Amino acid sequence: MRQFLLFLHVICFALWMGAVAASMFVIRTLEPRLTNPDRASMDEELLKTYIRHEVKLVDVAFLGVLLTGVLLAQFFAGWTLWTAVKLALYFVQFGATTLYIAKFIRPLKYPCSPNEYKRWQGLFAVSFSLFFVVLVWTYFGRDL
Ligand code: HEM
Questions:
Q1: What is the 91 CA–ligand 1 centroid distance (Å)?
Q2: pLDDT tens digits, residue range 27-50?
Q3: Which residues of the chain have pLDDT under 50?
Q4: Of 1, 12, 86, 89, best ligand 1 pocket probe by most atoms within 8 Å of the beta carbon
């Protein structure tokens, strides 16, 4: 059971991080079009449709990481400093990402200037740096 939960835990985190990586390429691909007044209206619809699909996957994977992590902590690994910090980092990641989207991404209107469009890079920087912190803690924090 422990192995099965760990298997699901790692699959959920991999899908979540993978979806963020794929979105980075979609956003980069659409940049010349969403910063171009002649094209933006058509591609804004495309971006919105993509985000709708991506969010559906990320919501399931995100909740899957939490559920499997809590079950692993509760029934196998125990509630140690290591698991408590992981849980805390998870909510920091959730808070930082949703706050950034509400403050910088949702207000974006297309076509926007290339400078405004750079806000998307900030979102990926926040997301990947927190994944990095969680993974460093996961692999190197356990023996502290
Ligand atoms: C971005 C979030 C997360 C990532 C990337 C992540 C990643 C991982 C990875 C890669 C492992 C396997 C480590 C190994 O092979 O030794 C693991 C194990 C574990 N994770 Fe997470 N995790 C995340 C969130 C959480 C959360 C929120 C909890 C809840 C408390 C949690 C609890 C655990 C536990 C208890 C284990 C150890 C399982 C065992 O020893 O059998 N994780 N995690």
A1: 14
A2: 999 999 999 887 767 788 899 999
A3: none
A4: 86
